[in-house]
Amino acid sequence: MTAALREQNLEIANEKAEIDLRRARLATHGTELEAVIGEDDSVWLSFLSKGLAAARAVGRVVAMPARQPITPEGTGVLISPRLLLTNHHVVPDAEHAASMGVQLGYEYDDEGGEQQCTTVPLAPEILFLTVPASVLDFTVVALPEESTEGNGYVPLIEEGGKVLKAEALNVIHHPGGDRKRVSIRDNRLVSQDEKWLRYTSDTRHGSSGAPVFNDQWEMVALHHGGVPATDYQGRKLTRTGEVWTPDMDEESAAYLWNEGARVSRIVRRLRRAALPPPQRALLDEVLSKGAST
């Protein structure tokens, strides 16, 4: 992987079949693979406009307990005008969801001022579906009707070929519960398995549930956490190489890379979900939009 990154040669890190699939996917965007991995670090201007469109669908997931201050819990992304996708460990069950919401537009404006956001309550009574962290760590929850107009959504694309190892990735998130940020391009896919993608992006607590994109702003993973650095005994380490203990600040822990659930695997799980007809219809809308993208 180090050689692939240094030499910008994807053939070192990927199988020919994977490269051919990626090349075919890029052709649908009018882009060649060589343009993605070349030494020129510039991108088409549409990279910015497409990124801004994707960012509008990303919000800060918050807890809204009665008569208590709103507290940030993570990040979420609209996958249709009615459905939000985040992590299971951010919204673990319908009971928690009933007192939670998503803040859309929680960001700075072009002058650096605090932009007014829209807080939308979650509506688990309409639809709630969750898969534990040990499996894929995601939750899909409904929002009230017509509550996200103008924010758009991010399609869930099951088709492969969206990213190769050593390619650049981009994350839109609310690190530390702060206003919306984007980690762009200085971030590479380093490994993958059947369920997870692993990458080098900077994230923090609060980034959980963030969408991870390729340079064409197709969502490739749902960020769920970091892979910790450990010693030979498997003990978690700090950034200074000491053994990390629970009484230490989480920010002091060292991580090898970050990890997210593959979108293709999330889609497969959603297809198998047993739901009543009204809920199934909301979910099928998501799957049909992704299939046509």
Secondary-structure topology with pairs:
Elements: H1 2-7, H2 16-27, H3 33-37, H4 46-56, E1 58-63, E2 71-78, E3 83-86, H5 94-97, E4 100-104, E5 118-121, E6 128-131, E7 138-142, E8 168-173, E9 181-192, E10 196-199, E11 211-213, E12 219-228, E13 255-262, H6 263-272, H7 277-291
Antiparallel strand pairs: 1-2, 1-4, 2-3, 3-7, 4-5, 6-7, 8-9, 8-11, 9-10, 10-13, 11-12, 12-13
Structural overview:
The chain has 293 residues and is an alpha+beta fold. Helices cover 22% and strands 27% of the residues. It is built from seven helices and 13 strands. It has helices spanning 2-7, 16-27, 33-37, 46-56, 94-97, 263-272, 277-291, and strands at residues 58-63, 71-78, 83-86, 100-104, 118-121, 128-131, 138-142, 168-173, 181-192, 196-199, 211-213, 219-228, 255-262. The strands form two sheets. Strands 5-4-1-2-3-7-6 form a seven-stranded antiparallel β-sheet. A six-stranded antiparallel barrel has the order 8-9-10-13-12-11. The radius of gyration is 19 Å and the shape is globular. The chain starts with a helix and ends with a helix. The mean pLDDT is 89.
Main attributes?
293 residues, 7 helices, six-stranded antiparallel barrel, alpha+beta, globular, seven-stranded antiparallel beta sheet
Main sheet: which strands, in order across?
5-4-1-2-3-7-6
Q: Characterize the overall form.
A: globular
Task: Report the radius of gyration as a whole number of Å.
Answer: 19 Å
Largest sheet: 7 strands, antiparallel
Query: Mean of the pLDDT scores?
Result: 89
- Please trace the helix and strand order, writing H or E for each element: HHHHEEEHEEEEEEEEEEHH
Number of strands: 13
Broad structural category:
alpha+beta
N- to C-terminal distance: 30 Å
Task: Count up the helices.
Answer: 7
* Low-pLDDT windows of residues: none
> What percent of residues are in strands?
25-35%
Helix content: 10-25%
